[in-house]
Hints:
By secondary structure, the chain is mainly α. Helix content is 65%, strand content 0%. It is built from 3 helices and no strands. Helix 2 packs across helix 3.
Amino acid sequence: MPGGFVTPEAIAHITTQKFVMASPLYRQEQELKRMGISLSRQTMSNWILRPALQD
């Protein structure tokens, strides 16, 4: 994403977890928190939606 800190791999992982593995963003947020990563579900949602809206 231009101007962002997220990598395409991170977006692909979050999207795959959400839509293929049926892991909602709130569960991903909890899992990341247990690993010491503070990343809100709103941020993840924006990362998923932004590329779709740019087309």
